[in-house]
Design goal:
With 356 residues, the chain is α/β, with parallel strands linked by helices. Helices cover 35% and strands 22% of the residues. It is globular, with a radius of gyration of 21 Å.
Length: 356
Amino acid sequence: MSNEELLLKALSTVKYPGFSRDIVSFGLVRSATLESGTAKIQLAITTTDPQVPTELKGNVESILNEIDSVSNTEIEIAVSKPNSTKPSPADAAPATAQSLISGVKKIVAVASGKGGVGKSTFSVNLACAFDYVLTETQGSSAVGIMDCDVYGPSIPLMMGVRGRPTIEGESLVPVENLGIKTMSMGLLVDENTPVVWRGPMVNKTIQQFAQNVNWGNLDVLVVDLPPGTGDAQLSLAQNIPLDGAVVVTTPQEAAVSVTTRGAKMFEKVNIPIIGVAENMSYFLNPATGDKEYLFGSGGGEKAANALDTELLGNIPLDASIRQGGDMGIPIVKSSPDSESARAFYSIAKKIVQKLS
């Protein structure tokens, strides 16, 4: 374990004053280094309460002094005031989306360390499966999907949504189709316009999606992450209060290795991994009914074991899944009785149970 990991692990036990969530998952730790026994910590918070920085500094010092390799501490806390000039109890909260995405009960990220594993296809079908499962269990459902794959926004195509989001006051209103509310960069730029942005622009976009989109009341918001562990992933972890992440992989070793390594990012920012889903697991031969493992087998289970989590399920390699995405009607909606749709239902049920 590196010095930074050691410090972050300790800091993840420090709760923000008045909250049950820690300062690492809130995204308040800007840097953490250990040099010659001196732990140097930089925090950034937003508050009007003068007692919060003092209390926070004392709690951090107390935790760090319990580490054997730490003999001294240097803690810097940058304090900024909320944009609103009207004080309120929420002023004491960190500058995250915890108090900004009002009405959203649960937020689930779908991630992969590697591109090409069908993560976005999985995301749209998972959102539709949540809609089905929640309607079945509670009589109604409200589900949304946030496409944070800024450079390759494919969710609008797969969900069959067109046109621009409308604006109410200072907020964007998601576009809705098939009972799912959708927000994506693909709805804000021309179809053939590439998004050529550096990290700060990506971070700003994700902040806007978190703070300036009126989702209304949602049972679940599915967040489709870009592959990898870059600016978008870290910004999302800092700006959106995720209840957990689902990691998508395919069976072959190349995908499992990269996916497992990338998923460990969530451990660093204290976001629980709900489980692993193995996509393109097998091809169901229509002539014989046999399962043919074209990309090998066992990769999802291997990734789940490496991440100390559960294998949520296996999604078959089905041409109908691809066709549904191309036509803008996910297979969960177009063929709800198919084996592929049932696989998504099973995964959605497990996630709902875990979140409950």
